[in-house]
Amino acid sequence: MIKIAMVEDDLELADVLTQYLKQYNIEVTNYEEPFLALSSLKIEKYDLIILDLTLPGMDGLDVCKEIVKNFNIPIIISSARSDITDKVTALQLGADDYLPKPYDPRELEVRIKTILRRFNHNNEDIKEEKTKLFNLDTDKKEITKEGKYIKLTAAEYEVLSLMIKREGFVISREDIFENSDLLNSDYENSGSLAVIINRIRHKIEDNPKEPKYLHTIRGMGYKFTNE
Question: Where are the 4-aspartylphosphate modifications (predicted)?
Answer without folding.
Answer: 52
